[in-house]
Write a structure and sequence with these properties.
7 strands, Alpha-D-Glucose-1,6-Bisphosphate, Chain A, domain 4, 4 helices, single chain, alpha+beta
Length: about 180
Amino acid sequence: MATEWKGTVHVDAPVAEVYDYLADFSRLPEWDETVTKVKVEDDGEADGTGAKWRTYERLSSLKSDRDRKPVFDLENNVGVAMREVRELVPGQRVAWHSYMMPRIGITSDCRFELTGGPNGTDVTFFVKMNVISVIDTLAKKVFRSLEDKQEGQWQRSLEAIKTRLEAPVGQPVGAAV
């Protein structure tokens, strides 16, 4: 089964700056609330495509709705995933494929589409989650609000990108202006 989501945010920053930020996968923990750490596994091609990043991700959305306890017994409720860079088009697109480690039948295909203009950049985030049917069926029974949690997480990622890129240079994110 596949779940698709799309969200857009306007960022008051030039498209080149937005692209450079999003194409730098070492900065994932700054805008993806689930990612606690990243580690490059393969540099890929000279342009960055084919690069592989191991991500350590909080699985906070994978808590049962009933008692809010983690369903999986993982240290600090952190799982490992691999993100493979599929496409980098300067000023236009950043795309990657993700899968859990070990591979358990859950993958995602994600991309940012950028549209620059005189007043900043529109950032559209596309996510397609691919889940084998038996896991999808089980997840819908155990995690009744999983889809809403994921969509909220993706929208918060867009908002975090906006906040990071619009913060005054040298000022910590969240500090009073």
